[in-house]
Specification:
Elements (H helix, E strand, L loop, with lengths): L1 E2 L3 E2 L14 H18 L10 H5 L1 H11 L6 E2 L5 E3 L1 E6 L6 E6 L6 H18 L3 E6 L5 E6 L3
Helix pairs in contact: 1-3
Length: 149
């Protein structure tokens, strides 16, 4: 979705289901990410996060996951989960994001999370992010994502 004055907003998993017709905007946004990486990273090129990604990791991670064709979770107007998928949020410190796998109650998201989060990690690691899989409260898994040192 394009927000006036802000450009394309990638799906984080905390909004409504993304509508049809975003493929072109998504492709343009992702191609922009790759071009920025090539221009500012010197020898590292497109293989490492650019400085803007490190400043806004949740946005960069959500863009990468959506561009890879992974499905974001979604919520309705009351905040109830309506679709199973990834959710990206801010991490525990600067330059970090957290990826969880969520869905509607009884939808089986907990049983899928290790496999699905591993797929998310593969996408992100291919783009130079460092991903660590943890088990958190209620034994639910999550990825902590950070730039390389």
């Amino acid at each position: 979705m394009t927000v006036p004055g802000q450009g394309f907003e990638p799906a984080t998993g905390d909004g409504a289901e993304p509508g049809a017709g975003r493929e072109g905007e998504l492709r343009t946004a992702y191609e922009g990410l790759v071009q920025i990486r090539r221009m500012v990273n010197g020898p590292g090129g497109a293989g490492v996060p650019a400085p803007w990604e490190v400043r806004r990791p949740a946005r960069a991670v959500a863009l990468a996951l959506e561009a890879a064709g992974l499905e974001p979770s979604a919520v309705d107007a009351e905040g109830r989960r309506t679709r199973t998928g990834y959710r990206v949020g801010e991490g525990p410190g600067p330059g970090r994001a957290v990826v969880t796998w969520l869905g509607p109650p009884g939808g089986g998201a907990a049983g899928e999370e290790q496999e699905r989060l591993t797929a998310c990690a593969a996408v992100l690691e291919g783009l130079g992010w460092v991903c660590l899989l943890y088990r958190g409260p209620r034994r639910r898994r999550f990825l902590e994502v950070e730039p390389p040192r």
